[in-house]
């Protein structure tokens, strides 16, 4: 839970900062996701799933590609409904964390759980 919280704060912080400097939400989300993947792989793999297998990086990246597009679709809907990208991003944190965890557990680190 702590690892997920730290990873979420890091990812949302990157997203928010990139919005603050003027990037469109889709680009801020993309860059934030890339930075999150780099930050999260070792913490999530090692501390949450007990994995030290660096070969899983490709599955891990694939899971985040899927999650990025889900998150982007959700943001488009929420921004279209009048929410700011910042608030939309906050509203999507828990659903995207759940989606990400399920994908990581079933498809990335399945042998370790």
TrEMBL record:
It is a multi-pass membrane protein. Keywords: Membrane, Transmembrane, Transmembrane helix. GO terms for cellular component: membrane. Residues 2-109 form the GtrA/DPMS transmembrane domain. The chain crosses the membrane at residues 15-39, 60-83, 89-108. Signal peptide: none annotated. One of its GO terms (biological process) is polysaccharide biosynthetic process. Pfam families: GtrA_DPMS_TM. It is found in: Membrane. InterPro entries: GtrA_DPMS_TM (IPR007267). This is GtrA family protein. It comes from Ramlibacter albus. The lineage of its organism: Bacteria, Pseudomonadati, Pseudomonadota, Betaproteobacteria, Burkholderiales.
């Amino acid at each position: 839970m702590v690892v997920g919280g730290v990873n979420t704060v890091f990812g949302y912080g990157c997203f928010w900062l990139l919005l603050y400097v003027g990037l469109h939400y889709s680009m801020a989300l993309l860059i934030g996701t890339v930075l999150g993947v780099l930050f999260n792989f070792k913490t999530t793999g090692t501390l949450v799933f007990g994995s030290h297998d660096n070969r899983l990086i490709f599955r891990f990246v694939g899971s985040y590609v899927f999650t990025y597009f889900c998150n982007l679709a959700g943001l488009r809907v929420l921004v279209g409904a009048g929410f700011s990208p910042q608030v939309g991003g906050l509203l999507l944190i828990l659903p995207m964390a759940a989606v990400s965890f399920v994908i990581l557990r079933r498809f990335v680190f399945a042998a370790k759980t």
